[in-house]
Amino acid sequence: MRLGLFLDGEWSHNFLNLIDKKKFDIQYVIGRVKADIKLKKICKKKGIKFIIKKNINASESVEFLKKKKSDLLVSLSYDQIFKEDILKIYKGKIINCHAGYLPFYRGRNVINWAIANGEKYFGITTHFIDKGIDTGKIILRRKYKIEINDNYEKILKKAYIHCPKILLKTINLIKSKKKIYFLYQNKLKKKNFYWRKRNENDEIINLNLKLYQIHNLIRSISFPGPGAKLLLKEKKFKIKSSKLMKNNNKLNFKKKINFYKNFIYIKKNNFILKCSYE
């Protein structure tokens, strides 16, 4: 089976280390414009052609893909959208691994949004690519637990492990030519759930939010994300992590400040917030 791979990031590194080159003819790996150096090194070590296309939909790129006549195009963390010319050439032959539970978590930064929304699970989905964004028919879909104190780094590491495994299982399933029981997204949910790319405003902690909302925000964008920000008396503090704790009036605090309906206690580099539970 001839594969054209469109890859980036640690999940892609793991995927290349999982896939058996004896079973698959990897014709090339196309990376993002800002090259993943580690990915490039892995390709060189494995004897796989690594290239970059500034515009995957440019006539030169489309002609390149047409000549290769791959059996399947595979996308994992690739950041360009395949447009009509490519979709016509490879109709029903382009798949994507999406680190979100489709159709409920389409779009950008969906792991961050799942944690921020207080979800108990995050999902990984493999699907065919069509004209829409994350709308193609679903091949495989799996859920993984999010614990109350799991942060972005921990969930991302889970995704790095499981995304490549599910993607490889999907490719093997397609290669086997066994009957696949697809899920059609328009039959699963009528309302679209697209999540936008997070911006700087999403990083600011609103102290009027409830306890779990603040905690979820902080852990959703912790390292390797940008980190949550707390604005206090015209100063901006970067919050690296948060922990839920019971009220303890015996704790000794250096400074106590009234702020809206909350009380903020400051001791060295730690803040303790008292806020609404419900």
Task: Write up this protein.
Helix 1 packs parallel to helix 2 (37-46) and helix 5 runs antiparallel to helix 8. The protein has two domains: 2-195, 3-Layer(aba) Sandwich (Rossmann fold); 200-274, Formyl transferase, C-terminal domain (Methionyl-tRNA Fmet Formyltransferase, Chain A, domain 2), CATH 3.10.25. The relative contact order is 0.11. The longest helix is centred in the middle third of the chain and has 25 residues, at 152-176. Strand 4, helix 4 and strand 5 (94-98) form a beta-alpha-beta unit. With 278 residues, the protein is of the alpha/beta class. The protein has helices spanning 10-18, 37-46, 59-68, 84-89, 110-116, 152-176, 185-188, 211-220, and strands at residues 2-7, 25-31, 50-52, 72-76, 94-98, 106-107, 121-128, 138-145, 194-195, 228-232, 235-239, 255-259, 262-267, 270-274.
The first-level CATH class name of the largest domain: Alpha Beta
User: Helicity range of the residues?
Assistant: 25-40%
Largest β sheet strand count, sense and barrel closure: 7 strands, mixed
Rg, rounded, reads 22 Å
Element order, helices and strands?
EHEHEHEHEEHEEHHEHEEEEE
